[in-house]
Amino acid sequence: MDTQVIWDVIYTVFAKHDHYRHIIELNDGKGDEALQSILAQSHLALIQVPSMLVTSRPTQQNLTLLEYWKKYNHYIMLRAYIESNRHTLHDKYEREHFITGCKYSTFLQTKI
């Protein structure tokens, strides 16, 4: 596909989005490069240092236990992708960290 056509399409789509419009204008007429620049800011495979996305484990805070489980599970999947590992919540190590992040972790660690 013609790179100018790609540029025209993304320029039209992001015309009202100041940040992306600035990126697109910098890549004047080069649709492939403009699209790469936009994706490079948020796509996991294109971020220069993806390990910075998973610097700390999530905690439950004000989430329900189910919401926290989903959030922690997504964290594990993201970290597994970045680090090329196969950790899940079924691993003892990850379960311990999950429980530590719960609101009532002391109760869970001593009673269950």
Structure overview:
The structure is a single chain. This protein has about 110 residues and is an all-alpha fold. The protein contains six helices and no strands. It folds into two domains: about 5-40, no CATH class; about 50-110, no CATH class. It starts with a helix and ends with a helix. Helix 1 packs across helix 3 (about 30-40). The longest helix is centred in the middle third of the chain and has 19 residues, at about 65-85.
Indicate the topology:
Elements: H1 3-13, H2 18-26, H3 31-39, H4 65-83, H5 92-100, H6 105-111
Helix pairs in contact: 1-3, 2-3
How would you summarize this macromolecular structure in one to three sentences?
By secondary structure, this protein is mainly α.
Descriptive key words:
single chain, mainly alpha, 2 domains, about 110 residues, 6 helices
Percent of residues in beta strands? under 5%
The chain-level mean pLDDT equals 83
Question: What's the SSE pattern?
Answer: HHHHHH
Given the C-alpha coordinates, what overall shape results?
elongated
- The portion of residues assigned to helices is 55-70%
Question: Using only CA atoms, what is the Rg?
Answer: 20 Å
Give a quick account of the main beta sheet: strands, pairing sense, barrel closure.
none
Please, how many helices?
A: 6
